[in-house]
Amino acid sequence: MARGTRIDRVRLIGIDSPEAHESPKLDRQVASGRNREAILALGRTATAFTRERLAGRRIELEFDVETRDRFGRLLAYVWLADGTLFNATLLEAGQARLLTIPPNVRYVERFRPLERQAREAHRGLWASDDARRGGS
Predict the structure, then answer these.
(1) What is the distance between the alpha carbons of residues 29 and 120, in angstroms, rounded to a whole number?
(2) Which tens digit of pLDDT belongs to each residue from 15-33?
């Protein structure tokens, strides 16, 4: 996200999308028996989904208790001009799974049924057998 001349990385609160690039997290997932290429493909799909819906659009950020994570990224809920909570959109489309990290839990009760519905409908990352068994 660009603010003036400063660019901040934003971590969407309450959700976790598959890795789209090589990372220590991806290495840990592969070491636990998950498929690297499948994870990266799901991550690229989630990235494209997000880019298609947010690129060039005006957004508003809503913060919870903590405003930055240990990596210095902004922690936020992303709202579109039409009142859509984009974090929820990712869950509904199956492009992310619920990830609750207290104390940032403002919308967890709103998010839980969205993830469940996407999983039951086999949308997005829930379409793969690996994801339904607990991977993404």
Answers:
(1) 23
(2) 999 999 999 999 999 999 9
Question: Phi then psi for 21, rounded to 5 degrees?
Answer: -150, 165
- For the chain, the residue count is 136
CA distance 39 to 29: 9
Rounded to 10 deg, the angle between the 36-54 and 24-31 helix axes is 140
- Token pair of 77 as six digits: 């809920």
pLDDT tens digits along 70-128: 999 999 999 999 999 999 999 999 999 999 999 999 999 999 999 999 999 999 999 97
Longest dimension (CA), the chain: 44
What is the reported pTM? 0.87
Task: Please say whether the beta carbons of 42 and 136 come within 8 A.
Answer: yes
Q: Which residues contact 46 (CB under 8 A, 6 or more apart)?
A: 17, 18, 20, 90, 95, 96, 124, 125
Contacts with 51 (C-beta within 8 Å, 6 or more apart), sequence order = none
Which residue in 107, 135, 116 sits closest to 37, CA to CA? 135
pLDDT, residue 66, reads: 97
Q: CB–CB of 110/13 below 8 Å?
A: no
